[in-house]
Specification:
Helices cover 44% and strands 26% of the residues. The protein is α/β, with parallel strands linked by helices and 140 residues long. Helix 1 packs across helix 2.
Length: 140
């Protein structure tokens, strides 16, 4: 069994999964969609990955503002959380994702990935950062 981490954005969803022992998170893929409100294929793909990786729980990044307030993205994330719970039947936990995209971008910069190439990977790496934060907290 594994835990899945998701970085939900307006056009993409970064996906990461844990190892079976819940120690490490690995970026898996980025699910892209053409329109923000078209989520049927996105949910179907997540459902496929849940079955393939035997996921028992989903951790969803919650995009609070830096002052800890909740904006429009939080509302959309809560709607997506409800859809995920209905579709998969799994528990979906919210995890503060502030600065995960910045951290993912910095990590890629440090290993020498060119700026124009970083967009290809940033959501997947951010999902791994979200999940790793959760796993680190879970394992304490």
């Amino acid at each position: 069994m594994r835990i899945m981490g998701l970085d939900f954005g307006s056009k993409t969803v970064g996906v990461a999964v844990s190892d079976p022992l819940y120690v490490t998170a690995s970026g898996l893929e980025i699910i892209r969609r053409e329109q923000e409100n078209k989520l049927r294929r996105t949910l179907a793909r997540i459902e496929e990955l849940v079955k393939e990786y035997e996921v028992e729980k989903i951790v969803l990044g919650f995009p609070k503002n830096m002052n800890n307030s909740e904006g429009e993205r939080c509302e959309k994330t809560l709607e997506f959380k409800s859809m995920l719970e209905r579709r998969t039947g799994l528990t979906v936990e919210l995890w503060d994702e502030r600065l995960t995209t910045v951290a993912a971008d910095r990590a890629m910069m440090e290993v020498g990935i060119r700026r124009e190439d970083r967009k290809k990977y940033v959501d997947k790496i951010a999902a791994a950062f979200i999940l790793q934060g959760y796993l680190d907290s879970y394992n304490k």
